[in-house]
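Progress report, Aim 2. The chain analyzed during this reporting quarter is listed below.
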Amino acid sequence: MGDAEQKDLHGTKITKQLLKSQSGEFDLESIRILKLQNCDIDNLGCISECIGLERLDLSENDISLLQALTSLKQLCFLNLSANRITNIDPLRELESLQTLNVAGNLIGRI
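Predicted C-alpha cells for the chain:
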C-alpha cells in the first residue's frame, strides 16, 4: 500500500501540537486566526479549546462532523468548503459568525 492510500485511510486529527505549530501561539486560547486548508483533516480533535478564534479556514479537508466548533463563540469567519459535511446545524450556535463558506459539500438542506 502506497503512502497516498495510507493517508486516505488515516486522516489527520487536530491536536494541540498541530494547532501550536500552525499558529505560532503557545496557548490555544490566544489563537485568533488559523489556516488549515488541504491538511487531510477528518477529525476536529481539540479545536474547541481555541476559544478566542475569530477566523478559521478548514477548506479542502475530509471533515464531516462539526460539533467541536460549537464552543468557538468569537468565530466570525469560517471556510469549510470542499469537505464531507452533510449537516451544518451545529453552526447555529455560532452567534458571531458573519461569513460562512460551505460550497462543495454534501449538504442536503440549510
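Residues 1-8 have pLDDT under 50 and may be disordered. Residues 40 and 109 are 25 Å apart (CA to CA). These observations will guide the mutagenesis work planned for the next reporting period.
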